[in-house]
Design a protein that fits this description.
Radius of gyration of chain B: 17 Å
CATH topology of chain B: Jelly Rolls
Oligomer: heterodimer
CATH class of chain B: Mainly Beta
Order of helices and strands of chain A: HHHHHHHHHHEEEEH
Number of strands of chain A: 4
Shape of chain B: globular
Largest interface: A-B, 57 and 55 residues
Helix content of chain A: 55-70%
Order of helices and strands of chain B: HHEEEEEEEEEE
Strand content of chain A: 5-15%
CATH architecture of chain B: Sandwich
Strand order of the largest sheet of chain A: 1-4
Shape of chain A: globular
Number of domains of chain B: 1
Strand order of the largest sheet of chain B: 1-10-3-8
Amino acid sequence: MNPKIYSAVSLVLLLFILGSFTSCGGDDSSKLNVPDEIEINGTQKIHSETMKQLVSNTSTPIELSSMLKNDNIPFSKDYIATYGNIDEIISPNYSAINLGILGADLGYLNLYNKTSSVMTHLSDIKQLADNINVGHFFDFDRISKLAKGSENLDSLIYLSVSNFNDMDDYLRDNNKTNLSSLMITGVWIESTYLITEVYKNYPSDKLAEKIGEQKILLNDLVLVIYNYKDQSVFKELVEDFKKLKEIYENVEITETYENSEPVIVDGMMKVVQKSKSSVKINKRQINEINSEIHNIREKLIKGI
Amino acid sequence: MYKKIFTIIILISLAKSFAFSQCNQKLVTYCTSKVKEDATFIREYRARLTEKSTAEIPVARYSVLLTKGNTYRFNICSALDYEGEGVIQLFDEDQLVASTFHTESKTNFEGFEFSCNKTAIYKMYISFLEGKEGCAVTVLSLVK
């Protein structure tokens, strides 16, 4: 090779490498405009760091929907929340909780590849997200494209879940844990509604156990909701969840502990947990849970 | 001779730059892209910790709800321009149930699979070996 050309190519490569090592001054998300703070009223009794520790994997609907699909439970649009006029939901608190509800439905729709229904949901999600100033985390255009494509299911699920996680992270990191907790509550309500509704048509011990297990997160949610009891939506949820908690008081969850040892299989560490949990729940309790959840959900969707 | 040395330096640097050395969104993108086709992405968790002069190793703490009957995959990607190598520890209450660090072989793996038989809220701790300064992304996925 000509020495001059060699030097030129090397210089270009060096410049490229130096460019890739240059700090961009933080991650890409820092380039976004940070919207105005939403005023939080009311006394916060639980420490903010504890609030941030609240379960952050809001993808429970993905796991539950995945279970339903694997068990060949047919899809039904009757399980999906329908809104008369999403424009009527404008308050930040109602927007946040309904964003959680729609997020759960989106997980269900994506898993079952119901792309036509996904499109309607996306507009509603964008609107509610905009109401609480996290709309910029929702990549509406790309998700729409993936939804229309239908062969990129994994990418669609990834992007949907990832965007919701980003919204949640932003709310927690910016002193809006009240809105984050409402989003997660919305996800929980819709997920519990889904499995109790499915149970009506396709009862099984497995599904009954899943319904009983919702008690675990409910206990945390009740503490968090009580923390903001002076705010709208939280005030009503405190009363509504009191009834739900009473029903779940009689749902028994027993745990046994046993040590598990990891094994290395094909270079990957694997642990099969030996500790176990089991749930004792009956049909009457499931019907009561379904009835309470149905009432709570209806009020929230109507913005009451 | 110098040409060869120069070429080698350029090639090594080029390879290193593609390994996502930086502690930013690119590390997140790189780590989440490693979710294989046999798993569904659930959540990513970030940790950026500085070395402390005390004996206590800095830790980033997260709560994760894991459900009985599911197998989860935890993967960690550490930014190369920091000394720290990321470690994930999963606790059920105060009992360690899984970790990327295999005590017997004293090897730190890039991840582990956890077959859950007890639905509970687990504590996930992210730290760096020997408490060194580090930046890492942990990806949690659901094995299909």
